[in-house]
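[retry 2/3] Mutator family transposase: previous attempt timed out, resubmitting with same input.
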Amino acid sequence: MEKTEFEQMRDKALEQLMKGQSLTGKNGVFAPLLQQFLESALESEMNAHLNEQERESGNKRNGKGSKRLKTASGEIVLTTPEDRKSTFFPQIVKKRETVLADNLAPQIIGLYSKGMSFRDISDHIQQMYDVEISHATLSEITERVIPQVKEWQSRPLESLYTIVWLDAMHYKVRDGGRVVTRAVYNVLGVNRHGYKDLIGMYVSESEGANFWLSVLTDLKSRGVKDILIACTDNLIGFSEAILASFPHSEIQTCVIHQIRNSLKYVASKDQKTFMQDLKTVYQAPTKDKAELELDKLNDKWGVKYPVVIKSWQNNWHKLSTYFAYDEQIRRLIYTTNAVEGFHRQVRKITKTKGAFPNDMALLKLIYLAVENISRKWTSPLQNWALTAQQLHIKFGDRMRMDL
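[retry 2/3] Mutator family transposase: success.
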């Protein structure tokens, strides 16, 4: 008994599956189905177009044309209906469309989000689907992410963030005919339930009080009413800006950044001994003990390295905030390691890029990287139940507990 068309297709599909072959790639059993579906849809669109009004105006069918269309199922040749007045503009496969973009867009954007260049994406798509896609088409597809980036940047935020870290990454961007350095400032926050979220991403040519004020103003306009602890790497103007916008916030500047900056001005032969003495300051069990050790550090090294010691003394009020908390919270706030760890993950994706063509191209790729990274932020920070209680004891009603 002769097999039906469905049975033949079923058998071919099973055979390809058993051989590990793609059902949708070149020569895949489902490829003809896509062609039939598209041609049927085009015919339906033409029927809808040639309504009574069109026919009364003298318009009617005028034969058929053909076009090559690149899809995830390989390249197919479509038979396309045409009308006499050329007023038919199909929607499922638009005129002059040579790539079924929506069919391939998820794969293309997914590859782009992993830091692959257009050349590598084009090669990969050709190997997988036997489809050649130009760089212009790839650019157009990735440009579709831009509205998502803008929507994400302006999305509403929660009213309270318990801890906020702020740090910058630097990239090369083309500006006119020259290559300039851009700083991408990321604001990583932890909400009152212990979940991380990148609440802000900003590109700036320079930093300063005005820039930071605009960042904090943006966060407030998106719904942030309170920040308990703000952790920074002592960026110029940020502490002043955050206290102007959130006057009750506590500021903790990164101790590790302070150490790195200090060692730049300590002779290499003294660095090991200096660090041993410095550890007794920032690793002290209490603030009082730390201040005693800072005085000893001054007595021993103050004459030889007055600028270094003076820096610790002048910044002590912002460097020592973490002593008010127990060990669990201290580990979270005395450095900007949380946001620096996030930056390391982003750089794994962006490291293959040279100079970005513009600021939006830079933001676009970082946004896609954030999407991938944040998928792992599905649980609260470790031991958050204990941390939340400590914050509630410290900040009272500002840190509400769901009891």
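[retry 2/3] Mutator family transposase: The chain has two domains: 5-147, 156-396.
[retry 2/3] clearing retry counter.
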